[in-house]
Every structure is written in structure tokens, then in C-alpha cells.
Design a protein that fits this description.
6-stranded mixed sheet, single chain, about 35% strand, 6 helices, 2 domains, alpha+beta, D-amino Acid Aminotransferase, Chain A, domain 1, OB fold (Dihydrolipoamide Acetyltransferase, E2P), elongated, 6-stranded antiparallel sheet
């Protein structure tokens, strides 16, 4: 086996849990996709972008400690917990390290668990031609669970699992068809992810450009004292090219010399400040520890007589 990183199979976004006896659901762990490669002599860890992450996770750098195989490619997710819940922020504390001394310190400071959900290669043979159900049975035989290595479990009732994820404020679920084959560099509806997002109203206090057209909005919320705080920027969502052009024209009439935000926004050097009058509805996944929206997406624009009232920090307790 020559170890070359593959592009793993990806789920597509879905709005509803698929129905039928052949579907199972799994927790969406909010970690870093990671594949473990073992050629019989050496273990390498590669993420889904085919970047080598072996050095960042030394406790998983010998597959033989958690898998009985002469050669294997395991697919899963590295996760780190914050107050008992998977946290993308926490796992990034490990994934972004490069200095050996800092990595060694982080092994105990930010413990990581490898959540394994698939096997792509085993003992000299590719397994992507096997149905998921068979691949999972193989995983049960070869993976040795431990404190830092676990198999991702199936839940037959996807709606029930989604409800549990909602109750605990977690990211969502992935639904998989038990008959699905593993498509290298593939993405289709045999695997479907349902994410749990929240929404809020935010006011735009700045914009950035790509060429001569606005390509992102800098968002803020007001505190009780009327101070506007930057909460992130959004450049994706339900926005047409025509809408971006209209926003560009409007922004030119709303320019400010100084930032309207009480805190210092990211991307300030690229920003053009505008009067905080334009209100948008934003969908987001969660808040980062730095008070910024994670994965904000623009859903709609609206005219508001009183943006300070509509775009208040207080709405966070209502969502």
C-alpha cells in the first residue's frame, strides 16, 4: 500500500431527516475530519484537505495501538470537549499548532478523542465497494476502543437524535444509508447532514469589497447603552448578484470616516465604514468564545425604523 491521501466522502446539506428503515443517524461531532493511514510500518494522519496532521496528534500516530490491521485507512473526526460538549474552538487549539514543544504540552492540556465512523482500506484491499453496514461490522472487529478512541454509534431514530442535539445545543446529525458505498472524492445524498442553526437581526456597520462590488457585511448588535459591538462578517447566504450591486450603491451614500463599532473588528484594514442603518437577518451556528458568530449566513434584508431596538444583544436570550 502506497500511502497517498484521498479526498473523503462528504454528506450533503438537508433540511429534513430522511425516512425509511435503511437510514441511521449519527452525531455530528463539530471536530476536524481526519483519516488515519497505516501501511504496515508507518502511520500518517491527513485531514480532508489532504494536509498532513500527524505531528499535531502524536497520541494517534501508531494505528496499531487502536486497530488490529496489517494495513488500513480509517475515517473519522478528531474532537475536543468544552464543558462536556464538542467544541470546534478547542480542537483548533491542537490543529493549528506546529511547534513540537507546544504540541507536547497540548496533548494533556487539550485532550482529543478520535471518533471513527468508517474504514476505506483494510489488509491490502479497498473497502469502498462494500455497503456501509458491512464496513461498520468490519470496524467493530478491528477497532479497539479506549479512552481516546471511540466508534461512532448509529441511532435508528434520526428525529429523536436531532431533538437531543437541539436540547444540548450541539451542531446536528449526519444521516447515512446503510446500503451506501463509500465514494472517494464524492458528495451525494446517500449521506445527509442536518445542522441546527439559530438566527438574529444584525445591523451593518461596514462592508468589504471584491473589486468594485461589496462582498461581505460587517455585523453588529447594540448593548443597553446604545454601543454597537462587532459580532462578525457575512458574505454568503441568500444574496443575489443584483442585491450585492444594490448594496454597493447604497453603501457609497452611507460612508463614515470612523468605525461605528465600540470594539475592534477583524478585517478593519479592508473595511469601509457605513452608517448603521441596513438591517439583515442572519443565520448562524453558534458563538465563538470571542463573541463572534460562527458560520453566519445572510437570510434577508429589511427596513427598520429603529435598528437599535431590533438589533439588540437582548435578542440573544430570546432565540
Amino acid at each position: 500500500m502506497e500511502m497517498k491521501p484521498i479526498i473523503p466522502f462528504e454528506p450533503v446539506r438537508a433540511e429534513r431527516v430522511p425516512a425509511g428503515p435503511n437510514w441511521v443517524a449519527q452525531i455530528k461531532w463539530d471536530g476536524v475530519r481526519m483519516l488515519a493511514y497505516f501501511d504496515g510500518n508507518e502511520t500518517r494522519l491527513w485531514n480532508r484537505k489532504r494536509n498532513d496532521r500527524t505531528a499535531q496528534y502524536p497520541e494517534f500516530a501508531d494505528v496499531r495501538t487502536y486497530c488490529r490491521a496489517d494495513s488500513v485507512i480509517l475515517d473519522g473526526e478528531m474532537i475536543a470537549l468544552d464543558q462536556g460538549k464538542p467544541s470546534f474552538h478547542e480542537i483548533m487549539k491542537r490543529d493549528r499548532l506546529s511547534a513540537p514543544a507546544k504540541i507536547a504540552q497540548a496533548v494533556s492540556r487539550v485532550p482529543v478523542t478520535y471518533m471513527i465512523f468508517d474504514v476505506v482500506y483494510f489488509n491490502g484491499n479497498w473497502t469502498y465497494g462494500m455497503p456501509l453496514e458491512e464496513r461498520q461490522r468490519l470496524l467493530e472487529q478491528i477497532v479497539v476502543p479506549g479512552e481516546r478512541v471511540q466508534l461512532v454509534r448509529n441511532v435508528p431514530d434520526g428525529e429523536a437524535l436531532l431533538g437531543v442535539m437541539r436540547t444540548h445545543g450541539m451542531e446536528g446529525i449526519v444521516c447515512k444509508n446503510l446500503s451506501s458505498l463509500y465514494a472517494l472524492d464524492g458528495k451525494d445524498d446517500r449521506w445527509q447532514k442536518i445542522k441546527l442553526f439559530r438566527d438574529l437581526y444584525a445591523v451593518v456597520g461596514g462592508v468589504t469589497y471584491r473589486g468594485k462590488i461589496v462582498n461581505a457585511l460587517m455585523l453588529g448588535l447594540y448593548d443597553e447603552g446604545g454601543n454597537l459591538f462587532y459580532i462578525g462578517h457575512a458574505g454568503t447566504g441568500k444574496v443575489t448578484a443584483a442585491q450585492w450591486e444594490r448594496i454597493t450603491r447604497r453603501a457609497e451614500t452611507m460612508r463614515l470616516a470612523a468605525k461605528p463599532f465600540a470594539n475592534e473588528p477583524e478585517r478593519s484594514k479592508e473595511a469601509h465604514w457605513i452608517r448603521p442603518e441596513l438591517v439583515v437577518k442572519v443565520q448562524y451556528l453558534e458563538w465563538t468564545p470571542y463573541g463572534l458568530l460562527r458560520h453566519p449566513s445572510i437570510q434577508s434584508f429589511l427596513e427598520a425604523d429603529n435598528p437599535k431596538e431590533l438589533c439588540a444583544l437582548g435578542q440573544l436570550y430570546e432565540n
